[in-house]
From TrEMBL:
Superkingdom in the source lineage: Bacteria
PANTHER family, sorted: D-ALLOSE-BINDING PERIPLASMIC PROTEIN-RELATED (PTHR46847), GALACTOFURANOSE-BINDING PROTEIN YTFQ (PTHR46847:SF3)
Subcellular location(s) per record: Cell envelope
CDD domains: PBP1_galactofuranose_YtfQ-like
Protein name as catalogued: ABC transporter substrate-binding protein
Record flagged with keyword Lipid biosynthesis: no
Family matches, as Pfam families: Peripla_BP_4
Entries under SUPFAM superfamilies matching the protein: Periplasmic binding protein-like I
Similarity comment: Belongs to the bacterial solute-binding protein 2 family.
Alphabetized InterPro entries for the sequence: Peripla_BP_I (IPR028082), SBP_2_dom (IPR025997)
Span of domain Periplasmic binding protein: 21-274
Amino acid sequence: DETGGTGGQSAAPGSGPIKVGFSQLGAESGWRTANTESVKASLTAENGIDLTFVDAQQKQENQIKALRDFIDQGVDVIAFSPVVETGWDEVLQEIKDAEIPVVLVDRTVDTTVVDAYVTWIGADFEAEGTTAGEWVTVNYPDAKIFELQGTLGSGAQVDREAGFDTIVGQQNIVGKASGNFTRAEGKAAMEAALQAYPDMDLLFTHNDDMGLGAIEAMEAAGKKPGEDIQIVSVDGVRDGLQALVDKKFNYVVECNPVFGDQILDTIKKVYAGEQLPRETIVFDQAFDQTITQAEVDARAY
Ligand code: GZL
């Protein structure tokens, strides 16, 4: 992750709605759906935003096209959640040349373009991995771990893997595969892993959706999720926490997707040319099987 800039372009504040181009990476998971709902609920006309929202179906080329369209449309601010960390230098330079400030949302970028974005808002992915790893080390120190990874090369995958592996130690990890953050691909990856690593007794999955797919694969193979194979997950969407109540997940590290209000506030400050912190970390917590059905039912997403 390179330097985030300081202060956006000075635009004439108060001159009508702020034109915002938002490139969302996809709709691959419950997390992403909740994040999109939060963004759309905050970036509204009544909040002074003229929003153009484009879903890239998890394809980087679609995001790059949307970003170039935003430049052509002459938006005031660009916000985007990059599907992977690299491959953005050219379009980020084009945006910089067009003097359009960028607010990075959720996922991170690794770019050589200096001051490519004004600020980044998201979760501390490495801390999420560390939290998961610490729980495993305390509760299942001798586990034979299989790791279901998110979209390879995404900031969430890279950093969760780094945080987790550093704590548990590579020697305790029997295998890894990517399920691309989706339920279907998580199920398929787990079906293969159960054949390849029959002695695995703990799954660390980078998100709930892949973990839910893995449950289907385990049950089809006659394994009891949460018992024969412990499951540690990240996100904390409703279906993931329900699996915790059902004793099929054992530990869930939250990654909060509901920060549309913070994105709105940041965009208004960028538009007004205010100084902003390089990054804003969204608060996360963690849940174990002491969670109650009432707590799950009360969750917003
Ligand atoms: C994390 C986010 C990840 C979620 C997945 O902030 O980028 O992408 O953990 C989602 O569910 O697909």
